[in-house]
Write a structure and sequence with these properties.
With 104 residues, the chain is α/β, with parallel strands linked by helices. The chain has a single domain, classed as Ribonuclease Inhibitor (Leucine-rich repeat, LRR (right-handed beta-alpha superhelix), Alpha-Beta Horseshoe). The chain contains one helix and six strands, in the order H-E-E-E-E-E-E. The strands form two sheets. Strands 1-2-4-6 form a four-stranded parallel β-sheet, with no helix packed on it. It has a two-stranded parallel sheet with strand order 3-5. The longest helix has 12 residues. It is globular. The two termini are 26 Å apart.
Length: 104
């Protein structure tokens, strides 16, 4: 059984606020439709891999994937977005990343 994202988000934000460095975050298969504005708060200096695959991002109501959160992750190298409904990625989505590899 998968845990609902709002529960995951609350627990994760509590963890992120401890200042413990986190390099890899797997949020795959959580039925996510979007990332909240503060979903990745506190991870900008450490997060290198983010797995958002097998979710509901880019569904029929919003086929364009956009999130200001990714701009705050300069160390992000790998972003997994496969198996979502994304049809387009918002311009500027990846502006804050320095050496990102996107998997579609």
């Amino acid at each position: 059984m998968r845990t609902p994202f709002n529960f995951v988000s609350e627990r994760f934000q509590a963890f992120a606020s401890t200042g413990t460095p986190l390099e890899h975050l797997d949020l795959s298969e959580n039925n996510l439709r979007r990332l909240s504005d503060k979903a990745l708060q506190g991870l900008g200096e450490t997060l290198e891999t983010l797995d958002l695959s097998h979710n509901l991002l880019g569904d029929q109501l919003n086929p364009i994937f956009s999130s200001q959160e990714l701009n705050r992750l300069p160390r992000l190298r790998t972003l997994r977005l496969s198996h979502n409904g994304i049809r387009k990625i918002d311009n500027g989505l990846l502006e804050g990343t320095l050496s990102l590899q996107v998997s579609k």
